[in-house]
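User: I'm putting together notes for a lab meeting next week and I want to include a structural view of one of the chains we've been expressing. I don't have a solved structure, so I'd like a prediction I can at least talk through. The sequence is below, exactly as it appears in our construct file.
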Amino acid sequence: MADDKFPGWHGTTILAVRRGGQVVVAGDGQVSLGQTVIKGTARKVRRVGAPGREIVVGFAGSTADAFTLLERLENKLEATPGQLARACVELAKDWRTDKYLRNLEAMLIVTDGAELFVLTGAGDVLEPEYDIAAIGSGGNFAASAARGLMETDWDGEKIARKAMEIAASICVYTNGNLTVETIRKEP
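Assistant: Thanks for the context. Below is the predicted structure for the 187-residue chain, given as structure tokens.
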């Protein structure tokens, strides 16, 4: 992600794959400034929420902005326990209409193991098709690779790891240093 204050900053690549009753979220670790890798081990996939109500969130864009949004999302989840879709919609409404929040530059992938959403500052709460969601600089490469790999009999983690490997071989803003979280919705 780039803006006027920090031209040339590029984010990360985050991919989510839903398969076999679970969702795997993988994120690379690269943060670049122009043609220079500033950090190769950033961790932009995290578990948040109370035990038994955990969710996995992956974010691309400004880290400080993403953490602000994660904190707000946790507050929405506390206010609407067990209702991930509602919490995401409430966050997106605030993000779009709040004078402070609407300037935040990040995107989120959010899952509880059953539901899977992409949240944007434009007020979008998107439920992706094909059980794949991707954001960030190499998101389109990762999503394309994952979509092709869904025709295999591989599990979600193997698909996510291979798709991220393919994205890293194409996108200069994506590396192979992955953080991978798997979550299954408990009955």
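A couple of points you could mention at the meeting. Residues 55 and 107 are 16 Å apart (CA to CA). Residues 63-79 form the longest helix (17 residues).

User: Perfect, that's what I needed.
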